[in-house]
Amino acid sequence: MEQISAVEDYLTCPVCLETFKEPVSLGCNHSFCSSCLHHYWDKNKTKKCPVCRRKSSKDHPDVNFALKQLGLFFSKKEPAPAGERERFCSSHPEVSPLFCLDECRPLCPACEFSLHSGHKVVSVDSAVSELKEQLHSQLQPLAQRREQASALQRQYEEINLHAQTQVKQCERQIRAEFERLHRFLQQEEESVLRALREEQSRQAQTIEPQLQKIREELSTLEQNILTVEEQLKRQSMDFIREYRHTHKTTQTLLSQPGPELGPGLLINQAKVLGNMGFKAWDKMRALVHYSPVLLDLTTANRWLHLSEDLRSVKLGDTKQQQIPLNPERFTKYANVLGCEGFSSGSHQWDVEVGDHPDWIIGVAKESVDRKRERGATPEYGLWCLMLKGGTYRDLIVRKILNLKRSPQKIRVRLDYDNGKLSFSDAEDLSRICSHEVRFTEKMFPFFSVGKAGDAKTKEIRIYSTLILTTT
């Protein structure tokens, strides 16, 4: 009990003799309720400590949070008398509190009113009504944010599902492509092995007759040697009678040329193995294709259909594809970008348009608006050539072009460093139009496709302008 009494004394304000409310401490280390101290100062027109009379250096002493927390903790330990109503100010329990909307806290009219000069002070009931109204006004924005978050969640889930489909599609194409290359390499391997077997057969056909001839000659020589040895064993007239025949046979045999090694007896490894890998690669070039521009599926409008090799695009005839409306995708127009942008260097690509009657090709800056309505002109970040309604238009300067013939394949050349963009007929290299442009950000190949109608060309396709040569 003595300890509790000591704590009570420590937490008691010397002015109001109640437990501290918003305790503040002076430089002399004496502590008081903030309202009690300011009331004392206002009443006595002085800034001195009520206990030791030492003048305070601060007009508004800081709250002593340690004492405040300790006071709150101690007050929770003491059970409130039964039936006692909540009192805001222990010094003035009979006075109803007010509420300062600027500081968002209640105040005692007797103790603190003068401290809130210029603040918006209202009754507690008015404050409750106004604050509830403020909270209620936040319900609708919160509900809207919730709807936006829910819609965004659905978009993320849709994109995630589509990404899984993309993975499966890519995996199928990867396997198909490398299976095709593996099959080609297996065929090439069999071809080289077949060439080796043919060389082996040639070598065998070359050496076998010569070897057989040598075997026959060895047999003849062995037989002749035996005959000569037998003849040498004969005596007198028997030797003389047989000598002439034996000598003639031996002379005839010795006069014939001896056997020699002929050419082509070994396997011609250089013929079989020479440039084997290069020859296979040279043949493989007919199977693979390089494109300086590949179309970016993530930017393609839902009406557009891209080929599996991402080199051609056409407009769908029936309905839009159910693919996510991710931020990169064009939603207003049937547009698509190349997957790689350029911020330096010189680049060119050919676009086969054939007799397709409705298209726009050119370049677009990376920040081009992909969602709202806009024209395919430089002010909107697009530098393009267009064919529509049988008329060619240079959209960079908004000019109709009178061409001598309708190009089937158009070459686009972008010289970023020197700020030049040109369009020409890829077949005879005649210039269609060219411009000097000061590019300020990364530029991407741009394509827009309309309805093909009765045209034979249903899609526009990108080709490389490079010619791969062997050395």
Descriptive tags:
elongated, 471 residues, six-stranded antiparallel beta sheet, 8 helices, alpha+beta, seven-stranded antiparallel beta sheet, 18% strand, disordered C terminus
Shape by Cα distribution: elongated
What's the β-strand tally?
18
Low-confidence stretches are 77-86, 467-471
Radius of gyration in whole Å, from Cα? 51 Å
Write down the oligomeric state.
single chain
The total count of helices amounts to 8
Structural class: alpha+beta
The main β sheet shows up as:
7 strands, antiparallel
Strand order of the largest sheet: 6-7-18-9-14-15-16
Please describe what this structure looks like.
It is a single chain. The protein has 471 residues and is of the alpha+beta class. It is built from eight helices and 18 strands. It has a seven-stranded antiparallel beta sheet, with no helix packed on it. A six-stranded antiparallel beta sheet has the order 8-17-10-11-12-13, with no helix packed on it. It has a three-stranded antiparallel beta sheet with strand order 4-3-5. A hairpin with a 2-residue loop joins strand 11 and strand 12. Helix 5 packs antiparallel against helix 6. The longest helix is centred in the middle third of the chain and has 95 residues. It is elongated. The C terminus is likely disordered.
